[in-house]
Design brief:
Length: about 190
């Protein structure tokens, strides 16, 4: 039996879910971002308790099929951009469609209907968040970041970054350095 969890997007979330499953004596085989596969059927009471406990941590146990599909789409995108070093060589649409086993048009229409933005907009927002992380950690320069996230050029990345954040990547990085300098003056 598979259970789907909304907002389960990090390793910390996975650890919290593991704890809750352990407390309730629920045995699982697979625990991925947004999904748990458990060995046995759980009782109504266990499901209710798990739902309540997860909610206290800001996680939501999903019941609705559309909500589950949206979470699957978001998790594929999050994993693709934030947790893998290699962004797929195929189009994002083909990758998502292949991973989830649905026609992309169906996925895109459902996502837009429920979330109010397109899958492409969601991907761009996630890519810009990833760019911010990489800029803050200062491991890569802008050229390396644009290559790593499959931008056609540094200019394309910079334009998208400014459109989303209102700042240039360079200015964003300078803000980080100014904050760091201010903290050192304390």
């Amino acid at each position: 039996m598979k259970l789907y969890i909304k907002y389960m997007v990090s390793l910390r979330c996975k650890m919290m879910v593991k704890e809750e499953l352990k407390k309730l004596g629920i045995h699982y085989v697979i625990l991925e971002l947004g999904m748990i596969e458990i060995l046995e059927d759980i009782t109504v009471e266990q499901r209710k308790q798990l739902k309540e406990n997860l909610l206290k941590s800001g996680l939501v146990l999903l019941d609705n099929k559309k909500s589950i599909l949206i979470e699957k789409i978001k998790n594929v995108i999050t994993e693709m951009i934030h947790y893998t070093d290699e962004v797929p060589k195929v189009n994002y649409s083909d990758y998502i469609s292949e991973k989830l086993g649905y026609d992309y048009t169906y996925l895109a229409n459902t996502f837009s209907e429920v979330k109010g933005i397109t899958i492409q907009q969601f991907i761009i927002i996630n890519k810009i968040e990833r760019v911010k992380e990489l800029l803050i950690y200062d491991e890569f320069n802008l050229t390396e970041i644009s290559y790593k996230l499959h931008y056609s050029s540094v200019a394309h990345l910079s334009n998208q970054f400014k459109k989303i954040t209102g700042l240039t990547p360079t200015f964003y990085k300078q803000l980080k350095n100014k904050r760091k300098a201010n903290l050192e003056d304390l």
